[in-house]
Amino acid sequence: MVEQEIIEQLRKGDEKAFKELVTLFEHKVYNTALNFLQSHHDSEDIAQEVFIQVYHSIQQFKGNAKLSTWIYRITITKCLDHLRSKKRKKRFAFISSLFSEKNDLLYEAPDFDHPGVQLDRKENAAILFKLVNTLPESQKTAFLLNKIEALSYGEIGQIMNKSESAVDSLLQRAKQSLLKKINKKDLY
Amino acid sequence: MSTKIENKGLHILDSFDNMNQVDSPLFFYTRLLARMQNDLHQKRKPFFYLKPAFMTISLSCILIINVLFFFNINSKKAVLAKDQTSSEATIESFSNSYDLATTSVYE
Q: What distance in Å separates residue A147's CA from the closest CA in chain B?
């Protein structure tokens, strides 16, 4: 089925079209979520939410952008929302731990071991994932989409609703800030 | 030394290159469908304050309180007015009988 055909069928509520859409995009959505959230469980959860959202809002999809761009946009929004709510919960847990007798903070995950990273780069990738999490949201999004998803500046711009030059400057700033952080860290 | 550090930094920055895509979890579609069906069955119950019964009862309570308050205020006003006129009359008669009516010297 062609992309346009899938959209048309999906608007009619065709389950076959939905299955095809999921098969077509599940890897992309899951991988993008995994890069942002660095947790297999959360990524699966968010990937499911993305497809549910696509199913419910396909009527609002105007077709101005490519379907993949739209799905990427939904995925990134959901991931960032999830991270924000996690941060909020963590902050609240910290405050409540100050007043409660039990000193239980939220479980802090160890360094993320991405299964797709080549063996000789695993250590460096874990450091980079940790540092990427300290970047501002827009820089993090641009960096991950460019470095891992290997998307062009144009595609990233469409997803983030920014011009190519804006994406370029975001990437430059992200790289500079990461380099600074790497140099500051005692890694050698 | 600084170039060595810079190279190491760039090396870390490049560690995401040629990363392999990870397979999505097994039975992803089946689990997704199950979740969607579960969501459909578990339709959210409306908040209790949005239920028509609760809204009607609270609205009628507000109306009753308003009506009671209105009548209470009116009856109080009537009693007050009556008291005022009676008290004015008694003061006047008292001042007349004791010749206490104030008269201005300039009149």
A: 6
